[in-house]
Amino acid sequence: MKKVKVTQTAREDMRDIVTNLANMDLTAAVNVLNAIDEKIELLKHSPNIGFLPKDDILVNKGYKLLTAYNYLIFHVELVDCIEVRYVIHGSCDYAGLVK
Questions:
Q1: Residue 22, Cβ neighbours under 10 Å: how many?
Q2: Domain residues of the chain, as ranges?
Q3: Which architecture, in CATH terms, is 4-97?
Q4: What is the 3-state secondary structure (H, E, C) of the chain?
Q5: Single pTM value for the model
Q6: Can you give the pLDDT of all 99 residues of the chain as single tens digits?
Q7: Cβ-proximal residues to 48 (8 Å cutoff; 6+ apart), any chain
Q8: What is the pLDDT of residue 1?
């Protein structure tokens, strides 16, 4: 089993997602957070899961993506862990956000 590290940036992304959703629908916020957490937990057991982003620069930096509802979970595999770096809405211009 590989260790998974969630960066401060990803934690802030998740906090912002939950805060924004909770203002509209608390149940939706809880469901989305649980789905994101489940996907992150999957990385411990299956570190190779995910798909490659469409942006070649992100691919060359080693990023892979997981989805949870409409959110993208950006992660990279390092020597000692899987690092979750960003969690953003799929409609965002993610190539510009994570470069």
A1: 15
A2: 4-97
A3: 2-Layer Sandwich (3.30)
A4: CCCEEECHHHHHHHHHHHHHHHHHCHHHHHHHHHHHHHHHHHHHHCCCCCECCCCHHHHHCCEEEEEECCEEEEEEECCCCEEEEEEEECCCCHHHHCC
A5: 0.93
A6: 899 999 999 999 999 999 999 999 999 999 999 999 999 999 999 999 999 999 999 999 999 999 999 999 999 999 999 999 999 999 988 777 765
A7: 77
A8: 86
Alpha carbon distance 5, 63 (integer Å): 14
What's the angle, vertex CA 1, arms to CA 64 and CA 45, rounded to 5? Answer: 50
- Pair of tokens at residue 77: 């595999």
- What single-letter amino acid sits at 76? V
For residues 48 and 57, give the distance between their C-alpha atoms in angstroms, rounded to a whole number.
19
Q: Identify whether the C-beta of residue 4 lies closer than 8 Å to the C-beta of residue 84.
A: yes
